[in-house]
Amino acid sequence: MYDYVIVGAGLFGAVFAREMTDAGYKCLVIDKRPHIGGNVYTEKVEGIDVHKYGAHIFHTSDKGIWDYVNRFATFNHYINKPKVNYKGKVYSFPINLMTLYQVYGVTTPQEAEKKLQEVRVTIANPANLEEWILSQVGLELYELFIKGYTMKQWQKHPKELPAFIIKRLPIRLNFEENYFEDIYQGIPKEGYTFLIGNLLKGIEVRLNTDYFSDKEHFNELAKTLVYTGKIDEFFGYRFGELEYRSLRFETKLLEGNYQGNAVFNYTDSEVPYTRVLEHKHFNFGRQKHTVVTWEYPDTYTRDKIPYYPVNDEKNNAMYRKYEQLARSCPGVLFGGRLAEYKYYDMHQIVGSALAKVKAIKAQKV
Ligand code: FDA
């Protein structure tokens, strides 16, 4: 008998299991995949940590969360500076003074601001993503960086998408190319699987084990179930199926230095992939060989991995019904990106698992 059966050996499940084990509770972690780590999993290929489910860079401004993850792995000093390739030309990204120099030839913040004022389209109340971007940077930058990439990623025209999807994208009037603005940033030197392995040290983990293959059995094994899988699946899709976008990865082992940077975004709609990753650059690798991954957006079906929730009004309303049901589900705790139907960065997942543990401990006192 266990105190907690935790469905999912991803970041949420691993932090929760570590904290509860350290507090004296007996935990069992199960995962249907053949490995721990969920989407942060890295696999060593010829000494290179390959980010199997897309580029993962840890970033946070919360010192508590940074100190927490540093207890389980040493982080390198990687700073994410992706580049854009549009029709064979390379641009600095996110949009900054270097980008504006490359596109317009402007060299100072004053010139750049003047140019932006000229090219911005006046739209009083931008109603969708296209209008919002046009109102911020005008047609040329929109077509160079946003239009094709967004159409590939979401399989929808930017006119059909809400502005909030991209409001996170910084537009800078300085030469700063660091994609994130957080104080702390890096990647575990030994990969994320090493970090998750340390979190799960001494805890029973069963891989290749789907909760739904025998859910009555797993429910009986513990007083409390912690579920980090898809919430609609947990409730038998009774209100319908929540939509996701998926991804498909093609990976090759090559010789040398393929693109000179860890991440390149391909923003032209004619190119079918959205990103190319060269994994050794995430860890300043100087190996003779290299591992390169092409990332293609893909339609989600149940046999694929759900990557990005489609948080439009229809899906959010459906999620709220599931959330309501989850609130009155005794003995089950829901957590993580799939159970909450929300895009979360890793630091937010760590924060939410620690907050859940804190709330449970406070109740038990
Ligand atoms: P996660 O999906 O990792 O874990 C859930 C686990 O539950 C999975 O292992 C799954 O197999 C298991 N499971 C589900 N159903 C089950 C069942 N029925 N039975 C058994 N097991 C079951 N964040 C960041 O901070 N920096 C970054 O650079 C990136 N980059 C990035 C790129 C891409 C392409 C994506 C999609 C996401 C990111 N992220 C990110 C976000 C990051 O991936 C995310 O925060 C964490 O992986 C979420 O961890 P969870 O544990 O919630 O889910």
What does this molecule look like?
Keywords: FAD, Flavoprotein, Isomerase. InterPro entries: UDP-GALP_mutase, UDP-GalPyranose_mutase_C. Its cofactor is FAD. Pfam families: GLF (PF03275), NAD_binding_8 (PF13450). By secondary structure, this protein is of the alpha/beta class. It has two domains: 2-78 and 184-242 and 306-364, Rossmann fold (3-Layer(aba) Sandwich), CATH 3.40.50; 94-165, protoporphyrinogen ix oxidase, domain 3 (Orthogonal Bundle), CATH 1.10.3110. The protein contains ten helices and 16 strands. The chain has helices at 11-22, 63-70, 97-104, 109-119, 129-154, 192-199, 215-221, 231-234, 313-327, 346-364, and strands spanning 2-7, 27-30, 42-45, 48-51, 58-60, 83-86, 89-92, 184-186, 204-206, 222-227, 244-255, 263-266, 275-278, 289-299, 308-309, 332-334. It has a seven-stranded mixed beta sheet with strand order 7-6-12-13-14-11-15. Helix 1 runs parallel beside helix 10 (346-364). The relative contact order is 0.20. The structure holds dihydroflavine-adenine dinucleotide. The site of dihydroflavine-adenine dinucleotide (FDA) has 33 residues, from helix 1 and helix 10.
Summarize the structure.
This protein has helices at 11-22, 63-70, 97-104, 109-119, 129-154, 192-199, 215-221, 231-234, 313-327, 346-364; strands at 2-7, 27-30, 42-45, 48-51, 58-60, 83-86, 89-92, 184-186, 204-206, 222-227, 244-255, 263-266, 275-278, 289-299, 308-309, 332-334.
